[in-house]
Every structure is written in structure tokens, then in C-alpha cells.
Write a sequence for this structure.
């Protein structure tokens, strides 16, 4: 694999600056996002993630800056009424400076009835009794072809969501690969390698990439779990660098993106491990 940003990392990191633990004010997040989009690592950055409930603030900010088009994904966390997303999409449709790249909300049985005109949907999968039902339902939506839809799973802890360990995350990845369900992840993936940070466990981006690769090639669940638990950065970096074009295409057809509140954190580590070769004349991650 080339050491330049390739298809493996292209558009992988969605900018979740306004969400915890970053909690950046919207105007700051928009300004920083515009900087990311013109940086040496711009090819790695996906859309800015914005709460659907903040759509009016977003419109006001975009108009006040008048700095060109901005691509955003509208987010409604579990417990938010889906109608908030629909209203936000309608609001953005009249704004030439704002483009909705997609919408993210909690899975619910009636999601197919949302009037979203084929806007890509990301449906957060719950834990517990409805988890398998949600994945099967999303798989059916993928197969039907009437919607552009994928699953979403939370990899970081929140006050109401305990950190998912290697076994739980491996099971999700393995099931998505088995069912052919594309997915994105959110929360906690700030670093390249599995470790404890500030006393809290965090999954690693390189671990996830290799776990998805294994699952996509019919790897056993125990192998997927072991890759998520691996803590040797050199072993992980070497394995990622050895992926060929076919591996990358298959991997990214499943693992489409993940949200990160400070996108330069993983990018800086990827560069340290020799997986990126950024132009020194451009702005570099810090």
C-alpha cells in the first residue's frame, strides 16, 4: 500500500467537533472544518457532523461567513424524534451554501417511511433484544435498494452507554460482514492503537481496520476479537500497510467512516507510524 493517503483512509474521518468530549461551539467547529478541508490531510476528512436541532444556527453561521459550500451530516442521537431530522433536511434544501451529505438517527422499525428522497441514512443499532432485529432490518433495506442505508455502532462510552469491549465490538463487525451491512462507528476512536487513555479504555483505529479486514475475509469471530485487543503498534501498522487494493476496496465497502471530535488526533498518529506522507508545505496535524 502506498504511504500516501489512499482509498483505505479516503473520507474515513467524519468531523464530530461539536459533540462530546470536544464540545466545540458551532462557529469554531465550522471554521476549523474549513481549515481541515484545505489541509494536507483533506482527503481523509468526511463531512462536518451537526445536530439536526442546530440547523438554524448552522444556516446563520454559513450565511454570516459566506465562505463557500459546506457539506454536513445531520445527527439525531437516540431519543430524538426523527421528525427533527426531516425538518432539518427540508431546511437545508433551500440553502445553496449547505449540502446535506446524510442523516444519522437511531434505528426504529418505521425508518423506511421517512421522506428523505434517497439521502443516505445511518441508523444507530441498539444493544439488547432489538440489536439483531435492527441489523437484519438494515440488511433488508440494503438489499431492497430503495434507500442508501448503513448501520452505526457506538465504540466509546457515554453516561448512558458503557464502553463496548473487544468481544462486543467484534461481534458487531463480524455480523455486519456476515450480513453484508455497511457501517460507520462513532465515539472513542481518537487513537490509532488500542490502549487506556486517561484511565479509560479506547479502541484503536488500526485495530478496527484490521478487524474489519479479517471479518470481510470470513475470519473467525475469535480472530476479529484478537485483532481488536492487539496493542503492538508496529505489528498493526505493518499489517495495515500490507493491505492490497482488493483488500482495501472490500474493507471500505463495509467500514465506511467514523466520527471523531478532533480529527487531527488519529491523523497525527498515523503519520507517526509512517502510514501517511503529508506535504510539509501544507498545514500538518498537531
Amino acid at each position: 500500500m502506498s504511504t500516501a493517503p489512499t482509498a483505505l483512509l479516503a473520507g474515513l474521518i467524519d468531523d464530530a467537533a461539536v459533540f462530546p468530549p470536544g464540545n466545540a461551539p458551532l462557529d469554531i467547529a465550522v471554521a476549523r472544518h474549513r481549515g481541515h478541508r484545505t489541509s494536507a490531510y483533506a482527503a481523509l476528512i468526511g463531512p462536518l457532523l451537526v445536530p439536526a436541532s442546530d440547523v438554524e444556527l448552522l444556516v446563520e453561521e454559513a450565511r454570516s461567513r459566506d465562505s463557500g459550500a459546506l457539506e454536513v451530516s445531520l445527527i439525531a442521537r437516540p431519543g430524538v424524534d426523527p421528525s427533527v431530522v426531516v425538518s432539518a433536511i427540508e431546511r437545508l434544501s433551500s440553502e445553496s451554501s449547505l449540502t446535506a451529505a446524510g442523516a444519522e438517527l437511531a434505528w426504529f422499525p418505521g425508518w423506511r417511511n421517512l421522506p428523505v428522497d434517497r439521502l443516505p441514512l445511518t441508523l444507530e443499532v441498539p444493544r439488547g433484544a432489538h440489536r439483531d432485529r435492527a441489523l437484519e432490518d438494515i440488511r433488508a433495506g440494503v438489499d431492497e435498494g430503495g434507500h442508501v442505508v448503513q448501520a452505526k455502532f457506538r465504540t466509546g462510552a457515554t453516561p448512558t452507554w458503557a464502553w463496548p469491549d473487544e468481544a462486543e465490538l467484534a461481534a458487531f463487525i463480524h455480523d455486519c460482514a456476515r450480513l453484508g451491512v455497511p457501517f460507520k462507528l462513532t465515539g472513542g476512536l481518537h487513537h490509532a492503537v488500542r490502549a487506556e487513555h486517561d484511565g479509560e479504555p479506547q479502541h484503536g483505529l488500526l485495530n478496527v481496520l484490521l478487524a474489519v479486514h479479517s471479518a470481510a475475509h470470513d475470519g473467525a469471530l475469535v480472530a476479529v476479537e484478537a485483532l481488536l485487543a492487539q496493542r503492538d503498534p508496529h505489528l498493526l501498522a505493518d499489517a495495515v500497510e500490507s493491505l492490497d487494493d482488493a483488500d482495501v476496496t472490500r474493507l471500505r465497502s463495509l467500514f465506511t467512516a467514523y466520527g471523531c471530535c478532533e480529527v487531527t488526533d488519529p491523523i497525527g498518529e498515523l503519520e507517526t507510524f509512517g502510514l501517511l506522507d503529508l506535504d510539509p508545505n501544507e498545514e500538518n496535524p498537531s
Remarks:
- Strands lie at 13-15, 45-51, 70-75, 98-106, 121-124, 149-154, 183-186, 195-197, 200-202, 255-260.
- The radius of gyration is 18 Å.
- The chain has a mean pLDDT of 92.
- The longest strand covers residues 98-106.
